[in-house]
Amino acid sequence: MGQGTVKLTDLNDFLRPSDACILPVGGGMQAASKPKPGSFASPMYGKQSEEQAKIARVTLSDCITCSGCVTSAETILLDSAEALRAFESGCSDESRFAVVGLSQQAVASVAEKYGLGLVETYEKLCTILKELGASRVYDVSLARRICLLEHLAEVFTEIEKQQSIITSACPGFVSYVEKKQGPEVISKLSKVKSPQAILATLAKRLLPSATEVAQGRKVWVATVMPCHDKKLEAARPELEYHETPEVDSVITSDELDSIIIKSFSPLSTVRRTSLDDDFGGDHGALGSVYLGELVGSGGYLEFTVRAVAEKYFGYKLPESLQFKTIGRGSDFKEYVLQDPAKEENMIKFAAAYGFKNVQKIMRSIAAGRCQYQYVEMMSCPGGCNNGGGQIGGDVRDRNLLENVEAVYKQGSVIDDLKDCKGVQIVYDLIGAEPGSDKARKLFHTTFESRGEATLASLEW
């Protein structure tokens, strides 16, 4: 055999929790036997219980703030049975005003499985969630519009400072950066909250002022997402309000499907109910933001490219953008904005999906040779429509992904976000403009380095 070295980098982001993450309670660490009475070592050992030591559970929030792994194995930390129990219990609790937010990717996954249209699926799911006890069912499109407007204000600021920016609504990628990258990369992360987090902010901080329907009940927020990592995002301490999480419960499209199978099958017989509209905005199924082939993960890149071209170069881009694919596959794309007057390349944008492509960008940043001023990153190959929480998400089927994306785009249009009635109502309520101090206080968050723990630091 040759003498070459085989180097393995991070092959995936699934790490099983180490034994060092489990503490025995009462009995202490029992690797060694208890010394005889009178021994010089005996004071070091506490009383040993005759009962078998119990196991202490590390909470989800504790695990996020720990730096023992790249990204936590969320399906172990918070299994589906527990997630569903918390979700159904929260919806049915009459002392709460339960608000459920539906992501368009998750709804598209359900629609694809049952052969339904996107709008029809939204409305059938609304009926199901209301029967479970939800007081309000929203689509996340209003939150996503606010997210994009806040993000754009942030991008303009960074461009004028000649700084590059990394954007991602992917909790797995954010966790990877916080635990494996240095302050230089963390400082480049967009500080705008994800649509999930903004939806919760709207529900818990602005809904009581926009409507009196809560009637004094505590607002409780749940979401249906395409990704298990959204459970980790919801547990981030930076996304708390009055020391409690703004998002109280997260389930995935696959977990929602288990509710459908158990209690609402066949789905075709479920009646349709319109989504709620307390902010006067458009339902996502009827008028969400569609900006082309990369819309499935939020449309950050395409929305930003168009806005930058119009603001700095004075021209509108065509409805269909031509991206250059880098390497094999379709998960690494770039777009170059040119100054039409000088015919020079001015700003380079990229979208990198999947950890393989994410690592390419990270290595280029570390080497000081990253050529992009703006990068959109997602951990999952194919982006959010291919999230691990989607129905059939354990099987990577390109045809399935294409079908979900086709359904996703059924309710999509290109529009001017500022003209959206719901957006206007929200900013009128807070008395501010996108990117203002008031808006940043509500719709932005922070990130921090969580270091990289050694095994010794985990051995309690």
TrEMBL record:
InterPro entries linked: Cytosolic_Fe-S_CAF (IPR050340), Fe_hydrogenase (IPR009016), Fe_hydrogenase_lsu_C (IPR004108)
Transmembrane feature ranges: none
Superkingdom of the source species: Eukaryota
Listed Pfam families: Fe_hyd_lg_C (PF02906)
SUPFAM superfamilies, alphabetized: Fe-only hydrogenase
Domain Iron hydrogenase large subunit C-terminal, residue spans: 99-388
Similarity annotation: Belongs to the NARF family.
Name by which UniProt lists this protein: Iron hydrogenase large subunit C-terminal domain-containing protein
Lineage, broadest ranks: Eukaryota, Rhodophyta, Stylonematophyceae, Stylonematales, Stylonemataceae
